[in-house]
Amino acid sequence: MAEIEPEASLKNTATPHWIRVILDIPLTGPFDYRWTSAVPVGTRVIVSFGRRKLIGIVIANPEQPGYDVKLIKPIEQVLEDTEPLSLDWLRFAEFAADYYQRPLGEVVLPALPAPLRRIAAYHGKRSSGGPVARLDARKTLKRVDSVVSTAPILNKEQQSALEAVTAATSFKCFLLFGVTGSGKTEVYLHAAADILKRGLRVLLLVPEINLTPQFEQSLRQRLEPVAGPNGVAVLHSALSDGERLNAWLRVQRGEARVVLGTRLAIFAPISDLGLIVVDEEHDSSYKQQDGLRYSARDLAVWRGSDLNIPVVLGSATPSLESWAHAEQKHYQRLDLTERARAVTLPTVRLVDTRRLKMDHGLSPHLIQAMRDRLENGEQVLIFLNRRGYAPALHCNSCGWVSKCSRCTTFTVLHRAAAGRHQLHCHHCGLQQRVPSSCPDCGDQDMQPMGRGTQRIEEHLSQLFSPARVVRIDADSTRKKGSAQALFDSVHAGEVDILVGTQMVAKGHDFANLGLVGVLNADAMLFSQDFRAPERLFAQLMQVSGRAGRHTGHGEVIIQTGYPDQPVYQALIKHDYAGFARFTMRERKAALLPPFSHQALLSAEADDLNLAIAFLEASRQTAVDWTQENFGDNRITLYDPVPLRIVRVDNVCRAQLLIEGTHRPSLQALLKHFLPHLSTLPEARKVHWQLEVDPLEI
Ligand SMILES: Nc1ncnc2c1ncn2[C@@H]1O[C@H](COP(=O)(O)OP(=O)(O)OP(=O)(O)O)[C@@H](O)[C@H]1O
Ligand SMILES: [Zn+2]
Fold first, then answer.
1. Has residue 98 been placed in a domain?
2. What is the distance in A from the centroid of ligand 1 to the CA of 509?
3. Which SMART domains match (predicted)?
4. What is the DSSP letter of 17?
5. 184 touches ligand 1 (CB under 6 Å)
């Protein structure tokens, strides 16, 4: 740690000045350059590196360079079109780099909008002064008229949650544990307004923005009267480079006082921060799945503690990690036990499918309940977490099943335009024509195997004709804005039956939706991943929570072949706490998180044996080191294993799980062991990466 040295440097008057710079390259830095004067820490500079020119960030002005003076090149250009990155922001990035075991340059530079780190944006033919100058020249600030909005009066529970949050004048982490529809959003909005009135700023993280544009809209309406017109900036990965740069600059320049964003917004260069909110804190989209594999939720807690400000984590189904913190009183729990609109939680019913005659995957109970609701003018949601027409195509005479040639998976049958079908691999993207006869036996009796959202949509349209059926999943929402249009039509009452994947479960406040039907929930029940029941519970609780939000009397029907499973039994009672107690006991017995900490080393190679050999050698290195340094078995190194889907796009994958009950020891091992891995002879033919606190195993 402490590579960044803000103080020492600028006093140094000797020339030339040595400038220490980090770059986004896989080599261990930092790198020293010279310049005619001191350069403030956090400044972006253009330097040459080998034959390339790169944009880097100044982290120190050392008195002496780190290597031979003769080798040190001058900086090419000091970029002054933005303020230097602030010291507290750099400290935050340094923590992330250290914790997730990545070089600082690979954390800091990717966190900036692309034009600020891309050399072509400055040296290209049409760069005219760089991206910031170009943007400022073009910018005509659109004035948004602030609408005075009507905030509902908080109920007692909301009010006391709000008071707890706004009373915190130093770091405190709150777990806002509120049932679905309990009005957590209102608590965030009121708390945010209070913080803004004190002249401070607010960061609000949500799992998804594109799916809930209404949320962005109501946030603007409610907070712009306090934050100022254009006082809200939105940051997420679907923005264009220009939009992202614009929002980022507004945040850095202090024009935007509220930042609403997805996980990447945790790296927003926001100063005078007074509150961080993480909505749906259990959601796995807070975890970045490539590059720097960070958890924005965990980083939010660190940032809050570093800045000494309150942090609010909200959920109806908190992660067991956060729940454990609350149990141990590290976090303060704030409970919202009732729905804000004074309506009841939905009734959850399990339909045991084992002895039933099903119609295209639908039980008679579900069909009848749908009829009743539709007749009553209410909307129905059918939840099935499986897109496509059918999970595979199958030959009835020889048993052949459609498989991907590049991955160890089935290919999924999709209905393409004009009713034609295609086979898609959901892992590598391969698309194939449907064979007219079985490739193995030549028989023409090929049938779809199982059901996806498209097939259910097709069947429901026939069964409930003329009801208006709409499907919302990754396929039906590929075009920009199409998800919003589809959700708008649901809110406008132009849809009777909504079929969807987990996209429909998150955060939507449907006014007229009375019934939720859940198909094929069991698929997640017997996964090898120890977190599968936790995820299943959260998902089903979320989707159930869409029923009866405004009018009450909502109903949820879960079709299952295993009604006795604890997950389902807890769901019918809306008993998150009971589920958590049960699951926590299991985790404790097996010493799994949150009772231990994990890291996952994964390796990819053309040949599975190469990946395993590398992991085996890595394991040995780690075993030797822990024996020598700890002399005990406080760290467990499991055997390397192939991934469940071992080959994807012709690359074989395996992983090594490292586990320890004492986080600092685990961190010490990782720190020691990573630099050795690339020197292992077995490393030559593999790609490897390390993930700290993996969510999926
Ligand atoms: N104090 C209040 N009085 C009346 N209505 C309220 C109040 N607070 C919130 N609401 C309304 O209750 C509904 C549910 O609120 P909200 O969507 O914030 O719940 P939530 O806790 O985020 O739920 P979920 O976790 O299911 O997404 C919304 O329609 C909201 O406008
Ligand atoms: Zn494939």
1. yes
2. 8
3. DEXDc, HELICc
4. E
5. yes
